[in-house]
Amino acid sequence: MKKVILTLLVVGMAITGFAQDTNDKKTKTISVNGISEIEITPDIIYLNITLQEYQKDKNTKIDISTLEDQLTKAVQKAGIPAENLTISSVSGDQWWRKKKKDADFYASKEFRLKLSNLNKLNSILDGVEDAGITNVYISETTSSKIEAYRLEAKIKALQAAKAKATVMMEAIGEKLGGVMQVIENSTDVIHPMYNNANILIGRFKSEAANTVADTNIDYRTIKVTAEIKAVFAIQ
């Protein structure tokens, strides 16, 4: 999905400028700013998943290798390339036993999973022991075509500047001439902020947790903005 919003209004304009042509004659000019904003749906999503060992019962400990194997197989079953799953960090907690003579180390690993969408998220998480998942959150979103969208935003901003200058000149009975100068003021990519970045949503704490759908995740678009200053001659 992509939505283009052109903003033609800008704080100020100037028709006071003059430029020297090749015959040393002064040319009247108009300087305007054009702004554009493009909204795009991200097709690259980085999901961080933290797994931690736990004591299933008095005699059974689910170790990190078991949880990692479950996650790897779930990712593979979902049809996601193995290289899309990487280890982000490794840590652990120590819980001291009686008299503090021995330590039981509960290892923890955080994985970074690259996805094109979240459609298979629940099926992936379902393949791992619920108690072994301690955190899941969206760490980053972007687009595989982000540079193309940057360029498109600049073009739209320049077109907006020309359209505005044309309207202003027609309003006072003048004609717009050719462009004399183009300055890129700014180009920004605004990534979405998720109110519920931690998307466990009680999934592993509620009896009805498995009914939670992926569509409940606060999913937002990326915004690419550009502002161009253009100076046109007045005929």
Describe the structure.
The model is unreliable at 7-20, 95-103 and 200-216 (pLDDT under 50). Helix content is 20%, strand content 44%. The chain has helices at residues 64-77, 121-126, 146-171, and strands at 2-7, 18-20, 26-40, 44-52, 54-57, 60-62, 85-96, 103-115, 133-142, 176-190, 222-234. A hairpin with a 5-residue loop joins strand 2 and strand 3. The chain has 3 helices and 11 strands. The strands form 3 sheets. Strands 1, 2, 3, 10 and 11 form a 5-stranded antiparallel beta sheet that branches. Strands 7-8-4-9 form a 4-stranded antiparallel beta sheet, with helices on one face. It folds into 2 domains: 2-40 and 145-189 and 225-234, no CATH class; 44-140, Alpha-Beta Plaits. It is α+β, with helices and mostly antiparallel strands. Keywords: Signal. It holds the Pfam family SIMPL.
Shape: rod-shaped
Beta-strand share of residues: 35-45%
Largest sheet: 5 strands, antiparallel
Classify the fold: give the CATH topology of the largest domain.
Alpha-Beta Plaits
First and last CA, distance: 41 Å
Q: Which residues sit in consecutive blocks of at least 5 with pLDDT less than 50?
A: 7-20, 95-103, 200-216
- The number of helical runs is 3
What is the CATH C level class of the largest domain, in words?
Alpha Beta
Report the mean per-residue pLDDT as an integer.
Answer: 80
* Overall domain count: 2
Order of helices and strands: EEEEEEHEEHEHEE
| Secondary structure tally: strands | 11
> What is the gyration radius calculated from CA atoms?
28 Å
Assigned CATH architecture of the largest domain: 2-Layer Sandwich
Query: Would you tell me the structural class of the helices and strands?
Result: alpha+beta
Classify the helix fraction into a percent range. Answer: 10-25%
